[in-house]
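pls design
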């Protein structure tokens, strides 16, 4: 079934280490919300639902929106996405893989006590089917 469905991970996955854990569990891609909002200037005033976001990020009020510099925030968002991608790939390459889809639950270890570690597969009792990935060169038609 995993080959027929695109699995999207969501929920505090905006940091590279957490994204890698999601990929090891079988996610094909991740959804990022909180960290992306912070990148564009969210100050977590918790007024999103009122339409009176003081930062102008989550509002329909034109006066509040004027405080948001779209070109500057677009640059910040692009920088966040590029750095997150770079860090995910750095973790991937450090583990000896070419692509994050190659992570397995056996690659992720949890600290469970003094000098004791348990892998994700043992903690969750879950085995991910290996992703068929012939290599990066196949993506470029080489």
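designed seq:
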């Amino acid at each position: 079934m995993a080959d027929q469905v695109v699995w999207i991970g969501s929920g505090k996955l905006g940091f590279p280490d957490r994204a890698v854990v999601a990929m090891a569990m079988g996610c094909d891609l991740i959804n990022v919300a909180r960290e992306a909002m912070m990148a564009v200037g969210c100050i977590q005033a918790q007024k999103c639902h009122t339409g009176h976001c003081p930062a102008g990020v989550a509002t329909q009020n034109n006066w509040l929106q004027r405080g948001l510099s779209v070109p500057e925030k677009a640059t910040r968002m692009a920088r966040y996405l590029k750095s997150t991608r770079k860090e995910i790939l750095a973790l991937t390459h450090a583990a000896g893989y070419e692509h994050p889809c190659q992570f397995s639950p056996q690659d992720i270890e949890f600290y469970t006590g003094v000098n004791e570690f348990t892998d994700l597969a043992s903690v969750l009792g879950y085995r991910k089917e290996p992703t068929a990935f012939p290599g990066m060169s196949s993506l470029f038609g080489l």
